[in-house]
């Protein structure tokens, strides 16, 4: 699958946040997006997924050459797009197993209950999550790190083709950063998915090898380079 973002301009609440973003990601490629707080990274991921609060005013978002503008988020997910939220929502009363089962069924992938439970068990083990977490409501009362790991578990179960991870390392302890990085790398090796990872820190890249690092500032990509750019930003900040 190929994701292309062409000269994307987008507004939130009547304010222009994205001011002409160009980005292209193919199968198996691993891209990193960095940028100061408020530069538009989450807005870009919301636009890719089709969040209704983001209004595209110019440009296009294409999956395999076809525009997805106007397509609702669930349809984009069905095509193989997956977004890890920066701040996952809590839904009390929606059981984890029920939620994961519905998410899989919506992708029209038939999985028996037994296989689903086996996948969940293996997923929680790989992420070092307590097994009893699966008996709880979606993210309800989960710690910050548990919520972020739960998003990675969903990604592994749903096996998307194009993944946007919005700060998967935020709020994670040093060991958890490594565990999440290993899970994402293993997933990519198995699935050959394209990945766009948003982060503020070079640490997670100690365990993963991106090909490209892009820097978003004030709604525009202002710099692109290899992984060394992430280290440079960690050292010197956004002074180019
Ligand atoms: N619902 C909203 N109403 C008003 N402004 C918004 C809304 N959502 C986002 N914005 C504004 O859009 C700008 C970009 O926000 P965004 O969340 O995309 O930044 P970010 O790059 O993800 O930052 P961070 O690194 O802090 O996560 C910010 O100035 C933010 O206040
Ligand atoms: Mg953000």
Describe this structure in words.
The chain is α/β, with parallel strands linked by helices and 240 residues long. The chain contains seven helices and twelve strands. The longest helix is centred in the C-terminal third of the chain and has 18 residues, at 174-191. The structure holds adenosine-5'-triphosphate (ATP) and magnesium ion. Magnesium ion (MG) is lined by residues 41-42, 86, 166.
- Apparent shape: globular
**Which fold does the CATH topology refer to?**
Rossmann fold
What structural class should be given to the helix and strand makeup? alpha/beta
What ligands does this structure carry? adenosine-5'-triphosphate, magnesium ion
Top-tier CATH class: Alpha Beta
| Strand order within the widest beta sheet | 6-9-10-3-11-12
Largest sheet: 6 strands, mixed
Detail the poorly predicted runs: none
Number of domains: 1
Q: Using DSSP, what is the number of strands?
A: 12
Question: So, the CATH homologous superfamily?
Answer: P-loop containing nucleotide triphosphate hydrolases
Helix coverage percent: 25-40%
Per DSSP, what share of the residues sits in E-state strands of 2 or more residues?
25-35%
Q: Number of DSSP helices?
A: 7
